[in-house]
Model the fold of this input.
Amino acid sequence: MTGRLAGRLIGLGVTGSIAAYKAVELLRLLQAEGADVAVMLSPSATRFVGPLSFAALSRHPVETELLELTEDGRIGHIVVGDSADAIVVAPATAHFLGAMAAGLAGDVVTATCLATRAPVIVAPAMDGDMWTHPATRRNVANLRDEFGYTIVEPEAGPLASGQSGVGRLAELPRIVDAVVAAIGDRQVRVPDPAARPPVVATARDADLANRHIVVTVGGTREAIDPVRFIGNRSTGKMGVAIAEAALARGARVTVIAASVEVGLPLGAAVVRVESTADLRAALLRTTHAPDGAAGFDALVMAAAVADFRPVRPADRKLERGSGLILELEPTPDLLAEVGRIAHGLDSEGAPTREPLRPVPFVVGFAAETGSLDRAAEKLRRKGADLLVANDVAEPGSGFGTDTNRVAMLAADGSREDLPLLSKREVADRLLDCVALALDERDAALQTGRTNEPSPEPA
Done:
């Protein structure tokens, strides 16, 4: 996701004000700016809003206890303090302001603020007389002038006491703007997701039950001679993550595996291939079921397919010499070919054959370096329904990593830029699109909005 906070981790501290419910929407606004958000709740805050809502939305454990440990044995609020790019406390009560000004770490919110070197933004909310009390004003001045905290002062309006005055939590966009300004142009403190708060697995329904998903994984190898080959750096991690996620969501999964460096998922049917020609043959065998219907509901082309191969591979090992000149030729564009078959098109894009029925959903991957500017044109040229593009030169987003930062471009022109995520989370975001598209396809068939026949379970 793009935004002013893309790639940032923001710690959101919530204290026991009636305005605590607004922190849920603040979390969403921070995420809309591209931020990853970890939440801390004071004991009194949990009486206004429960941790479950924040955990479901943030996909991180919610810190509520000072001595609570993460699953890997780390102290939760210390992890947030060490890795956050900013801490925002909203709403902040008079009790928080006093405790913080005195350096008292009585709960996870104050403790996290004491344990961080990141900018801290405080948005108070309380009764009007509490806000104007000299003690509160002194504490606010201390936090602002001595600690360097940014104070987003409350606004005037109706208060929980029934009175009107200054004390209402500032408008949420003002708070977001203050977070952006406090971070400025600082570098991301901790870009490695493994060093950030752990991710809570998001429960998903079996929304791919009775679907057949084909996933290509790994990198193809093109023989130079019986010993040597042209290959690439793909390890298969992204494709395997997609296959595992599809299995977890109830799909029947076929994995077409080229060279991989990770274990293939149990429960998937596995077809082993080596070269681009092998992969093409395996794909063509899967396009049609025995009854003539489409052989799969969705194809995810996560394999790194060689773009070139030797024109004349040697049938014996080449002897070492002073040099070697290889003549290369382009390999077939497998994604474009399957896309044409799916839609009944010839190489010129003309409808000259029957499309697969029901038409499957085709996903391609594009590994780029330096820029994703070519991704939209690749999507158009290859005729896929969705193209997942990433910059493999970006730290944490290349071959062999456990994380990925991708942009998902759809055939309708929409684009979603995801932050740096684990490859499993990227897989589930991708499959969210696949599941929705297949449901819409089937609904259209059942209501007669297309000429497609009703699909049979794969």
About this structure: The first helix runs from residue 22 to 32.
